[in-house]
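Design job #97: recover the sequence.
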């Protein structure tokens, strides 16, 4: 299923024009200070025909592999034809983008209404080609090094995978746009716990993958260990390949 989804995403992503995102040291420094991600929803190059196509095809594939129930499937199909699709996407995107931002001098607002878990999953997959295209732009820029938060500099989402580089740095990988950025190797990205005695780490027997689990917030993050690896990290493939590690982490009482 993941390979079919990846194929749809690749096909659409190839057609998306290179987006224009304003990036300069001053802009990134300001966003860093406010913990505010760089990409506004309006700046995502959404082409409506492709967008509808990828929403419907994502639902088709998930339905075929029994990952989407009949009523949910119909709901997504209807949404794919609905004029409100962009509005729904905008709400979904902003909810993710604003979750971790800390506006200076204002009270934190209550969490905006989140889409249901099912819809969030479908929209995350359907929006990946568009967001990844935007991430490619920022990924090339040296200003990215100015970002030290644990949420994504581009879209504001949480990391859902990571990679240990040959230089033993840890780079987090965004769950929505796949941007990679450097983060302290032994600090929990979810609660910022940096007490090493309260980070549990274990690896697969071949040493290719690791789990860093936090004993403060009980969440964990998987990593691809690139120090002895023969290929670069492939987030979609590696996420699926490490499902047994998820089971092991959950069994020890951690959550993703
Ligand atoms: Zn992101
Ligand atoms: Zn934690």
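Job complete. Output follows.
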């Amino acid at each position: 299923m993941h390979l079919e989804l990846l194929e749809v995403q690749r096909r659409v992503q190839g057609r998306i024009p290179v987006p224009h995102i304003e990036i300069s040291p001053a802009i990134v420094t300001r966003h860093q200070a406010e913990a505010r991600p760089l990409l506004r929803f309006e700046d995502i190059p959404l082409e409506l025909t492709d967008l509808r196509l990828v929403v419907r095809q994502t639902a088709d594939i998930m339905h075929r592999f029994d990952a989407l129930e009949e009523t949910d499937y119909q709901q997504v199909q209807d949404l794919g034809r609905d004029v409100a699709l962009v509005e729904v996407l905008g709400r979904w995107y902003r909810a993710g983008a604003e979750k971790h931002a800390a506006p200076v001098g204002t009270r934190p607002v209550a969490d905006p209404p989140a889409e249901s878990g099912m819809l969030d999953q479908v929209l995350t997959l359907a929006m990946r080609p568009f967001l990844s295209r935007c991430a490619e732009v920022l990924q090339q820029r040296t200003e990215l090094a100015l970002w030290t938060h644990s949420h994504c500099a581009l879209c504001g989402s949480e990391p859902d995978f990571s990679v240990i580089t040959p230089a033993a740095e840890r780079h987090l990988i965004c769950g929505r746009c796949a941007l990679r950025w450097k983060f302290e190797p032994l600090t929990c990205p979810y609660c910022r716990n940096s007490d090493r005695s309260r980070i549990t780490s274990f690896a697969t027997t071949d040493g290719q993958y690791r789990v860093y689990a936090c004993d403060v917030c009980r969440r964990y993050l998987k990593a691809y260990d690139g120090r002895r690896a023969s290929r670069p990290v492939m987030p979609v493939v590696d996420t699926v390949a490490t499902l047994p590690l998820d089971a092991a982490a959950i069994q020890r009482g951690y959550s993703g």
